[in-house]
Specification:
Layout: H1 24-28, H2 32-45, H3 52-64, E1 69-73, H4 76-86, E2 94-97, H5 104-111, E3 115-118, H6 130-135, E4 141-145, H7 156-166, E5 171-173, E6 181-182, E7 185-186, E8 193-197, E9 211-215, H8 218-228, E10 232-234, E11 237-238, H9 249-259, H10 262-279, E12 294-295, E13 301-304, H11 308-317, H12 347-355, E14 356-359, H13 367-385
Parallel strand pairs: 2-3, 2-4, 5-8
Antiparallel strand pairs: 1-9, 6-7, 6-12, 8-9, 10-11, 13-14
Helix pairs in contact: 2-9, 3-9, 4-5, 4-8, 11-13
Length: 386
């Protein structure tokens, strides 16, 4: 019996995590000197907010995503908020989006004074269903906001066509999809704008918070640049209500160092994802599906099973940390009770939320650690069947 299929029960009981869900310290270790040097350069410069280090990172990130403009901000939530606001979304408007996401996607809509209108997801990719999207467009629809969930692009070709026919902008939530591609083109280059997150656990993570708006529209980029800095058109001249959404220079410098590693990290994630897909093929869990026109970057590797919670408890007993992304779909969150949605309104998203279990996957993960995850998952599922 191989190490990949041996039941987890054959191992001694774990006294601590055998495999963490993520290991940010392991990622930092080989870059420590380079990052400390970049931070030291910021400290010596005296430019601690925005400044040249942020500008250099913006330029590099824009180039990596085939976009003429990138505007660094304080978080991924801020990026989506400003992208929608600069696209003209405001009070009384509706934005079509998905309930299968982290709630920040909908926060961005609500911060504009608009109403999120949810659309169910495709059962294979768990991303926004284009047919459902087209059916929910009304005269109040002001934008379409798909999420590239877990690192797989949404169906951008079909969704962009819906947006074009409806005369509304497509804004991409690319918070989990740094460097992902759809039909050979990087995400962020399909819609009017896109928002990315640099929360520490993302594929490209800061040592703190950060986000960025990418766009091919110079006017929108200029407005986002102003809005992030109290809507200043020039010093002490404020054209409209603005925000303190500026990126810290230290985060810009750190992200500039880490961006150079993103390609290598992504290839390692893909290797580990392919290995999971191969060795788990005979285990009775639903594995992730990748559409043929999409280039997944595997921010998360998510399996599905009706007894997800039982499996998770067993894996935790084995010292394997797992994640839930996301156990309560946004339309059923108490914060959005006022929208009037009920259980059953989006059955696919609700089922995905009940069944999804995120397995550890990060570039520094060893194959021995992955073997331990597979062994634990296999044992947990067999225990259910027994």
């Amino acid at each position: 019996m191989s190490a990949l299929t041996a039941p987890a029960a054959a191992r001694p009981a774990a006294t601590g995590p055998v495999v963490p869900f993520a290991d940010l310290s392991a990622q930092l270790a080989p870059l420590r000197d380079e990052i400390l040097s970049a931070v030291d350069a910021v400290l010596a410069s005296g430019h601690y907010v925005l400044g040249p280090h942020v500008a250099e990172f913006e330029e590099a990130f824009a180039a990596a995503h085939s976009s003429p403009h990138a505007v660094g901000v304080s978080s991924g939530t801020a990026a989506l908020h400003l992208a929608l606001l600069a696209a003209g979304v405001g009070p009384g408007d509706e934005v079509l989006t998905t309930p299968m996401t982290f709630i920040a996607t909908s926060w961005a809509v609500s911060y504009c004074g608009a109403r999120p209108v949810f659309v169910d997801v495709d059962p294979a990719t768990c991303t926004m269903d284009p047919n459902e999207t087209a059916a929910r467009v009304t005269r109040r629809t002001r934008a379409i906001l798909p999420v590239h969930l877990y690192g797989q692009p949404a169906d951008l070709g079909a969704l962009r066509e819906v947006a074009f026919r409806s005369g509304v902008p497509l804004i991409e939530d690319a918070a989990q999809a740094h460097g992902a591609h759809y039909s050979g083109r990087p995400v962020g280059s399909f819609g009017l704008a896109a928002g990315f997150s640099f929360y520490p656990g993302k594929n490209l993570g800061a040592c703190g918070e950060g986000g960025i708006v990418v766009t091919g529209d110079a006017t929108l980029a200029a407005r986002v640049r102003a809005l992030r800095d109290h809507a200043q058109t020039r010093r002490y001249h404020h054209a409209e209500l603005g925000f303190n959404y500026r990126m810290d220079a230290i985060q810009g410098a750190i992200l500039g160092v880490k961006l150079r590693q993103l390609g290598r990290w992504t290839e390692r994630r893909r290797h580990l994802a392919r290995r999971y897909l191969d060795v788990l093929r005979g285990v009775p869990v639903r594995l992730p599906e990748v559409a043929p026109d999409r280039d997944h970057v595997w921010h998360l590797f998510v399996v599905r099973h009706p007894r997800r919670d039982d499996i998770r408890r067993r894996m935790e007993d084995d010292g394997i940390q797992t994640g839930l992304h996301y156990p309560i779909p946004v339309h059923l969150q108490p914060a959005y009770r006022n929208l009037g949605y009920e259980p059953g309104d989006f059955p696919v998203a609700e089922r995905v939320a009940r069944e999804s279990l995120s397995l550890p996957l990060y570039p520094e993960m060893t194959e021995a650690q992955q073997d331990a995850v597979v062994s634990s998952l296999t044992g947990a599922v067999r225990n259910l069947r027994g």
